[in-house]
Write a structure and sequence with these properties.
Layout: E1 8-11, E2 26-29, H1 39-42, E3 50-53, H2 59-71, E4 76-77, H3 89-99, E5 102-107, H4 109-112, H5 115-126, E6 130-135, H6 143-148, E7 153-156, H7 166-178, H8 204-225, E8 257-259, E9 263-264, H9 272-286, H10 297-301, H11 310-317, E10 321-330, E11 333-342, E12 348-357, H12 361-376, H13 394-409, H14 412-428, H15 433-450, H16 453-469, H17 474-488, H18 491-504, H19 509-521, H20 525-538, H21 543-555, H22 559-572, H23 577-589, H24 593-600, H25 606-619, H26 623-637, H27 642-651, H28 655-668, H29 689-697
Parallel strand pairs: 3-4, 3-5, 5-6, 6-7, 8-10, 9-10
Antiparallel strand pairs: 1-2, 10-11, 11-12
Helix pairs in contact: 7-8, 9-12, 9-13, 13-14, 13-15, 14-15, 15-16, 15-17, 16-17, 17-18, 17-19, 18-19, 19-20, 19-21, 20-21, 21-22, 21-23, 22-23, 23-24, 23-25, 24-25, 25-26, 25-27, 27-28
């Protein structure tokens, strides 16, 4: 569908020249309108093939993109550089769009708000030219943009360094220049974070060109666009998200603060769980304030115990302020010190010391959060309802914090300890909603690793109780949605729960991540990827969020995107068995069995290591070694790993044995079955009637 440009006089786009002077003349829009399809006839060998569309506020990014493309032989047309003095401004832009073979759109909140950029996108789409959209921030898109870009190639740099995306951009432009035009169609809107899979496959020549260009851009990125933020220390902090290109650093919002883990300064150093809990509660309170950007707990806690400067941390998390502090406990008295630091100059914006009795802890949290908000001059919503963590029992609160600490360690034994701690909190305060939500997760994981049906029943009951006690909080709905989807296969009930949780707290990274998992279970991979991109944006140093994103990109056959996400996850947590397993599977799918085998062997626990080894050894032709690994897996972990055993048999082409173990997984309510629709090792089974029958039994759509 083509929407004509009306003839009207509107303010000319404001462009900054090299001296920073802006031109505010007017232009006539629509007067030089041309007939459909006329652009190609006007093109000549000297006409620039790539039109650059951008908002004036993003001029620095656009200029750097032009430099990168033109270094690789891709001539560009960009205003105001290529505007001929004295000629009609609007006419030149229209002629440039018509003559261009492709367009690169710098997609941002500024661009989304610009009617001139929208007209350029509309014009490009009407001429059936390819658009490569480079998204540089998290701003939502108007419906018009989503409509015109639904068939375009998207590259997302909103949560990664733009320099790392430049080789992909150059390759995408090469492909776009060689590809046939595509008309915009009425289709589901492009997700806020679309995958980087091209809308068409590049031909062999384009692949060769992209390889050469990628090598050249690596040199260019190192030469021009990268800033090192490594700290010169004996044990420097890993920097998976710290570096940023000099010319294209994302704008850091003024109203942003990262809450760092408060230090335990108690004499016995035995209050770390309490100081961590205080930091978590502050994060929870601050995230509920409108217009204030607060990184999630996983990202803020990533640097705990690592040698990194405040500037390093703030750069990695994209914040203008950092809240740090300490907790000192003496008897029944607490002294809490907090400082709000402005990162760009290192000065304290505000600091305060609180001496309180232990029974006053929630008032302390409210005071600190309120003072930070005042310092940042952020407009507050009306008084928030009491949070679900509130309890009058200090000891119950302590047990909640211990439960969280155990649960986050992730081992089966620690999950059992977490369940015990949450149960103690509930015994001390039977109306403690947050403890019930935590207990639901812990008991569900205990069931998955032991098969204890009573644990599954306790998980369901705890989730129901969490919702009943705090219907205004997202935690209970998310916990119940998780239990319903992964273990009860009540997909409709789970969708209802997550819809409620997201309505209550859309900025919760964990809720977004678990909702993405539900979408993947239902086979809705584009939406799952979009939800996981939101989770990584909200919590950029969350290993589970990056792992899930990488896995679902792999399910979607976006291998390049999956590599990027999984490598980010493993930069954050190098020994993660889930990240290593997913990377191994990805390498197998790409035909790199030797490297996959080496990756699987890095997994520390044998339960996670053996399934991958069984598949990789089979692929490299060592049948004996493959069978040895599979036999050991069955002998040791038949209860915990029925789904993984089925995967190994399916990968080896032994369909009957694979279905035998899938049936065992079904009888055991194995949590792995929730991913049966997208799981790559099971691909060979999907045409079998037994596979469809299993989906039917699990209430999953075919």
């Amino acid at each position: 569908m083509r929407i004509g440009l009306p003839i009207a006089v509107v303010p000319r786009r404001r462009f900054a020249n090299s001296q920073g002077i802006r031109d505010d003349a007017t232009k006539v829009v629509g007067a030089p309108e041309m007939a459909e399809g006329g652009g190609e006839e006007r093109a000549s060998s000297s006409t620039p093939p790539v039109f650059i569309s951008y908002a004036s506020q993003d001029a620095t990014v656009a200029e750097a993109i032009v430099e990168a493309l033109e270094r690789q032989g891709l001539k560009c047309w960009i205003a105001p550089r290529d505007v001929t003095a004295g000629a009609p401004y609007a006419g030149q832009i229209i002629h440039a769009i018509d003559a261009a073979k492709a367009s690169v759109l710098i997609l941002s909140g500024n661009a989304a708000a610009s009617p001139h950029v929208l007209r350029e996108v509309e014009r490009t789409a009407s001429k059936r030219h390819s658009i490569v959209a480079l998204r540089i921030d998290q701003a939502p898109l108007p419906a018009d943009f989503e409509y015109f870009l639904n068939s375009s190639h998207w590259l997302d740099t909103s949560s990664i360094d733009i320099g790392r995306t430049l080789p992909k951009l150059v390759a995408a432009v090469h492909v776009a220049l060689q590809a046939p035009a595509v008309l915009p169609e009425v289709a589901p809107a492009a997700p806020a974070h679309a995958t980087t899979v091209p809308t068409r496959s590049p031909n062999r020549a384009a692949i060769v060109i992209a390889s050469v260009i990628g090598l050249g851009l690596a040199v260019f990125a190192a030469d021009r666009l990268w800033l090192s933020s490594r700290r010169a220390a004996a044990t420097p902090a890993p920097t998976p998200a710290v570096s940023a290109p000099a010319l294209m650093a994302p704008t850091i919002p003024e109203k942003s603060v990262a809450v760092l883990p408060f230090l335990d300064m108690s004499e016995k150093k035995d209050q770390e769980y309490f100081s961590d809990g205080l930091s978590e509660e502050l994060i929870d309170m601050l995230t509920k304030i409108p217009d204030l950007r607060v990184p999630a707990r996983t990202s803020s806690f990533y640097f705990k115990g690592k040698q990194a400067t405040i500037a390093d941390i703030a750069k990695a998390l994209g914040v203008a302020h950092v809240l740090e502090g300490s907790v000192r406990k003496s008897g029944s008295t607490l002294r809490i010190t907090a400082q709000l630091v402005r990162v760009d100059n290192g000065y304290d914006v505000w600091s305060e010391t609180y001496d309180r009795k232990l029974d006053d802890i929630f008032k302390i949290q409210d005071e600190i959060a309120g003072a930070v908000v005042t310092a940042l001059r952020v407009h507050l919503l009306p008084t928030q309802p009491a949070a679900s963590h509130r309890t009058l029992s200090t000891e119950a609160y302590n047990q909640l914090l211990l439960g969280r600490q155990f649960f986050n360690r992730g081992t089966p034994d620690d999950r059992r300890r977490a369940a015990a701690a949450y149960s103690k909190a509930i015994a001390l305060d039977p109306n403690y909603a947050a403890a019930y939500a935590g207990l639901a997760y812990a008991e569900a994981y205990v069931f998955d690793s032991t098969g204890d049906v009573a644990a599954m029943q306790r998980a369901g009951a705890a989730a129901e109780r969490a919702v009943a006690l705090a219907s205004e909080q997202a935690d209970g709905y998310a916990a119940r949605g998780f239990v319903r989807s992964v273990f009860s296969w009540d997909w409709a009930g789970a969708q209802s729960d997550f819809a409620k949780a997201l309505a209550l707290d859309p900025a919760d990274s964990t809720v977004q991540r678990r909702f993405g998992s539900l979408l993947a279970s239902l086979g809705r991979l584009p939406q799952a990827v979009a939800s996981l991109r939101k989770a990584t944006a909200l919590d950029p140093l969350s290993n589970p969020a990056w792992e899930h994103l990488g896995r679902y990109l792999m399910f979607s056959r976006d291998f390049a995107g999956a590599h990027e996400a999984l490598h980010r996850a493993l930069e954050i947590q190098p020994e993660s068995p889930y990240g290593l397993n997913d990377l191994g599977e990805l390498l197998l799918l790409e035909g790199n069995a030797a490297e996959a085998l080496a990756t699987f062997r890095k997994i520390v626990n044998s339960e996670g290591r053996l399934p991958g080894i069984a598949m990789a050894e089979h692929t490299v032709g060592r049948a004996k070694e493959s069978q040895q690994a599979l036999d050991e897996l069955i002998a040791k972990y038949a209860r915990e790993s029925a789904f993984q055993i089925a995967e190994s048999y399916a990968w080896r082409g032994e369909k009957d044995r694979a279905f035998e173990w899938l049936e065992r997984a079904y009888q055991q309510r194995d949590g792995g079955l929730a991913e049966i629709k997208g799981d790559p090792p099971l691909a060979s089974l999907r045409a079998d009637r037994r596979y469809k029958a299993l989906l039917h039994k699990m209430n999953l759509p075919e």
